[in-house]
Amino acid sequence: MKSLDELTKIRSEALRAVDASNTSGNDKKIIVRIGMATCGITAGARQTLTRLLDLMGQDRAAHIKVLQTGCMGNCDMEPILEVVDLEGVVTRYERVGIQEVEKLYYDVLRTPGVKSKGKKTKTVSLEGGEGSGKTTLLAMLKDHFEARGLDVMITREPGGVRIAEKIREIILDVEHTEMDVRTEALLYAAARRQHLTQKVLPELGKLDLVLFDRFVDSSVVYQGYVREIGMDEVYELNRFATEDFLPDMTIYLDVDPAEGLKRVYGDSGREINRLDLEAAEFHVKVRQGYRILLSEHSERIVEVDASRPVEAVFEDVKNLLDNLLNRA
Ligand SMILES: Nc1ncnc2c1ncn2[C@@H]1O[C@H](COP(=O)(O)OP(=O)(O)O)[C@@H](O)[C@H]1O
Ligand SMILES: Cc1cn([C@H]2C[C@H](O)[C@@H](COP(=O)(O)OP(=O)(O)O)O2)c(=O)[nH]c1=O
Fold this sequence. Notes:
4-stranded mixed sheet; Thioredoxin-like_sf; Glutaredoxin; Thymidylate kinase; P-loop_NTPase; Rossmann fold; Thymidylate_kinase
C-alpha cells in the first residue's frame, strides 16, 4: 500500500507528463473532450477525468490531448466524453464512469490511428442576403436527403438554445437603437458559440449532414463589412468564438437585393426585424461584402446564382452537397 504522499507524487508526475504532451510539438493528437459543467461533475466526470489522466500518465501517452469543456447538452447522460480521432471524426461516449473510461482508453485511445465507429458528419452553411432563399432551400434539402436515408439537421442560430435565444432578443430588439456595432458583433459571436457547443458539436459523429442557416460569414459581412468593423477583425473574433470550427463548405446564394427584398416583403407571414427595416443601400452593401468574401475565400465558399427559379437553385445546391457527401 502506498502512502498518500507517494500517491500524490505519482499523480502529479503523471499530470506533468500529460501536460507536457499537450503543449509540445505540432503532431496531430487524438482529442478527448470531457464535459465538466456541474451536471458532469455531479455525475462523476471528475473521477472519470482523473482515471483517464492517470492511465495516460502511466503510458506517457503524448498522442492524446484532453480538453475540459462545459455542459455537453444532455445532462442525463453525463459523464460524456467526445473523442476526435486523428482524421477529425468525432465519437461521443455517454455515461462514462471509471470502468468505461478504462475500456475506452485501452480499446480506442491507447493505440493511435484506430478508426472510430462514428460517422463523418459533413457540415454546410448557406449564406446570402435577405430573400436569397436560404430557409426555403434548407427545408427542401432536408426533405431530399432524409428521403435518401440520411440523418440531417438544419440549424439556425440561436436554434432553441435558451442562452443564445436571449442574446438574439437583445440584438434584434427594435428599441436598442443605441447598440454599438462591436457590441452587436460580440453578441452574435456569443450566441454563435453557445449554439455551436450546445446544439451542433454534440451531433458531430452522429449525423450525416448538418446544414447551417447562416454562420460566421454572416458576421464577417454584416458586422465586418457593412458595419465597417473590418472583415478580418470580425473573422478573428469568430475564430475565438468557434475555436476555428468552420463548415466543410459554405454556399453563397447570390441575388440582386431588390429581388430578394421583393420576395421577402411579398411574404406577409415573415418576421420583420430591425435589420429588415434598414435602407435598401444596406442590402446592396451586404451583397458587395459577400462578393469580397467570395473572391478572397473561393477555396471554401461556392457561389450559386439564386436569382433563378427555386427548383434550379435547389438542383445546383443539391449537386454540391452530393459531391461533398461523396468525398472521403
Ligand atoms: N428562387 C426563388 N425564386 C422566387 N422566390 C423565392 C426563391 N427562393 C425563395 N423564394 C421565396 O422568397 C421568400 C424568402 O425566401 P427565404 O427562403 O425565406 O429566404 P432567406 O431565408 O434567404 O431570407 C419566400 O417567400 C420564398 O418562398
Ligand atoms: C447570423 C447573423 C445575422 N445577421 C443579420 C442578418 C439578417 O439581416 C438578420 C436576421 O437574420 P435572419 O433572421 O436569419 O434573416 P434572413 O432570413 O434574411 O436570413 O441578422 C448579422 O448581422 N450577423 C450575423 O452574424
